[in-house]
Amino acid sequence: MRHGVVATLVSAAGFGFMPVFAFYAYDTGMSVTTLLMLRFAIAAAVFLGWLGLRGRLGRLTGRQWMTLALLGGGMYATQSLLYFTAVQRIAPALAVLLLYVYPGLVSVLSAVVERTRLSWTVVGPILVSLAGLTLVVGPLDAGLDVLGVLAAVGSAVAYACYIVLGSKVSASLSPTVTTAYLAMFATGSFALLGLATGGLDLGFAPAGWGWAAAVAIVSTVLAIALFFVGATALGPVRASILSMLEPVVAVLATWLLLGGALSWPQLAGGAVVLAGAVWGILANSARGDASAEEETTAVPASSKRTAA
User: Which residues form the EamA domain (predicted)?
Assistant: First the structure.
């Protein structure tokens, strides 16, 4: 139990530092597309290499290949692009808080997909998160980058859709295998996007390689692996709640390292958003119950910022 708690908290800290690492990478002249392509390429190489050495790659069916291509190359790549764009345009801490609207969205989307009644336990989490969202964003005429805010909210919507769909179609694969192939397909998507738009440029300052490696190793490979350790020891619901440390770390790291700070109303709004997120996790768990709990959290665990 103790090792599970430590692993989960260290994982959350790794995820929390990711927007800060990304900020420094952008400062070297690296584009969003280039950073994401490098991030997923490194992560895919590590995960696939580890699985290959242990003989755990397994054989995928044609349906599984298509599903993982859709999830990794399409939906998750879209979520990552929106999230990292938000980090580039608005305060990283603000982007993280806006992303955490997703657990409430998952509650509503799951109920719609499963055609269950929209009870207070379904609608409540998203209403609480949206209430906090209004405090976090504040007046849009206060110099806040509207496109950055929309990108962050869009990443939460895309992430929620990805989780709901992914929990239905990839339960037959282990989280590690799922993560490895999602990263591989995401790499391909960003490579193609970069070539098509001219956004793939390796002419950034040499320090950019270090920051890209930090995003890939510290905030992706190690953070995901440690989350798996924590989820195995504690259960996915407890691990997900402990992972709420991520936005706290992001806010503190932004303040200490980047000199940015959120206002008191924004911090209060962030607390409300996270309260809605915890409620959403508990509500989703209550609907899933025992055997379904592992299935519905396999993809969120692996996708926990394979982006974000």
Answer: 4-137, 147-278
